[in-house]
Amino acid sequence: MQPGARLQAAIEVLAEILNRHRPAAQALSDWGRAHRFAGSGDRAAIGNIVFDALRKRNSLSFLMGAETPRALALGVLAHAWGEAAEVIDAMCAGGRAPEPLSEAERAGLIAALDPDAPDWVRGNYPEWMADEFRAAFGAEAVAQGAALAERAPVDVRVNTLKADRAKVMKALREYAPEETPFSPVGVRVPVRARHHKAPKIEADAAHGKGWFEVQDEGSQIAALLAGAGPRHQVADVCAGAGGKTLALAAQMENTGQIYAYDADKTRLRPIFERLKRAGARNVQVLPAGNESALEELRERMDIVFVDAPCSGSGAWRRRPDAKWRLSPQALEKRHAEQRAVLAQSAPLVKPGGWLVYVTCSVLPSENDAQAAWFLAEYSDFAPVPLAQVWRETLSASFPGSAATGNGDSLLLTPASHGTDGFFIAILQRSA
Ligand SMILES: C[S@@+](CC[C@H](N)C(=O)[O-])C[C@H]1O[C@@H](n2cnc3c(N)ncnc32)[C@H](O)[C@@H]1O
Fold it and tell me: What confidence score (pLDDT) does residue 197 get?
């Protein structure tokens, strides 16, 4: 396909997403099915325009003076990919390509973002979240939002049950991998720019052999800081597809026991295949949604890991459409779910044990506010300072939290740590 035809296709897919509220991945795959002549390079280029438009929707529509799919797609080429205005102009020749540019569009291609534009425009987050962003980050709100609007690298966690870092680095050498800065079991495949395809790491034979899992470094750090070790008894109560379960199983060197539970059996379903591939043998998957199975763990767990349902705001780099789908009502529902799962988990922790509360959100209402609520409700729990846990677990200096807080919790963010947004609080039951 010619660049102009790719641009037109991206505009059509964006219209499906923005006007008909279709999830981005689904709209793109439907487009692919209906246009079988398109090659993988075309699909990658179209997908990249679509995802970058969603990542930077507010700033691009401000620059282009319109929030139409066409304005956003043109804005991506000019402002995110640095394409010259004349090149874009030449792409818009009609036919399979977009119609010729208007004067207003030409002006938008060379516009500069007004430094006095609202924070939520410059930071590319929804306007209704501006207060939360300010509460979370103060004067850094724009920079933190902007970093969540960039592309993310592909991080993998080395499965130490089957491989080591050097072996995985070698297996992935065609992707120019690097060691992740914080996680000792992380390998990072750098971001590709503009129209270039993201590497399909999971298609690699080493993945089939269980040597690694795709997992953001923030997620790896959350599992590491939980402090699971040999012979521990661990409940992973929001196990989902098992990303954290697998990390915990490897840390425990296949000893002790992990009880993996989730309220939703569809989400839990992939865990069986993943456990097998990883060679994890210390995991018992509890029947989904059966709370009485959790009852049996009462006061027996060294660690209860709560990877709570959340807005997913920390993962906006990877799922930018989620940013615009989130509503205040949906966020309130997540708050209630978080309290429910914390209340369900507290009784499982043995005296002296840890409840590890994790979200992939950067919003204080899902993070520190929920930890504070828990501590007010459960007076036999106290926070364990994260700086201390970090030094003991990762044998490295503590990089500090991105949140303005009291140091009892840790917020990782793309702007501050180069990871997805992750929140971790460790709450210890009195002995
Ligand atoms: C962030 S996801 C878990 C991701 C998973 N731990 C991983 O690392 O791949 C949150 C999960 O919590 C589950 N969930 C929500 N409410 C729950 C509850 N009350 N009890 C158990 N699981 C719950 C959801 O079904 C969802 O799978």
Answer: 82
For residues 56 and 42, state if they share a domain.
yes
The number of folded domains in the chain is 3
CB burial class (10 A; 0-12, 13-18, 19+) of residue 173?
A: exposed
Out of 188, 214, 240, a domain closes at 214
Tell me how far apart the alpha carbons of residues 369 and 383 are, in angstroms, rounded to a whole number: 13
Could you say which of 169, 199, 214 is where a domain stops? 214
Confirm or reject: Cβ of 166 under 6 Å from ligand 1: no
Question: Residues 417, 131, 342, 148: is their CA dihedral positive or negative?
Answer: negative
CB of 49 sitting under 6 A from ligand 1: no
The minimum-distance atom of ligand 1 relative to the CA of 247 is 8
Output the residue whose Cα is nearest ligand 1's atom 17: 263
- Structural domain includes residue 142: no
> Which candidate, 357, 343, 340, places its Cα nearest to that of 426?
357
CB 423 within 8 A of CB 361: yes
Ligand 1, atom 4: closest residue by C-alpha: 240
By annotation, the residues acting in catalysis are 360
**Closest-lying ligand 1 atom to the alpha carbon of residue 261:** 21
Q: Cα(309) to centroid of ligand 1, in Å?
A: 5
Q: Confidence class of residue 359 from pLDDT cuts 50, 70 and 90?
A: very high
The sign of the dihedral angle between the CA atoms of 166, 169, 170, 176 is negative
Global pTM value: 0.97
pLDDT in tens, 238-280: 999 999 999 999 999 999 999 999 999 999 999 999 999 999 9
410 lines ligand 1 (CB under 6 A): no
Q: List the domain range (segments joined by +) for residue 193.
A: 154-214
Q: For residue range 163-176, list pLDDT tens digits in order.
A: 999 999 999 999 99
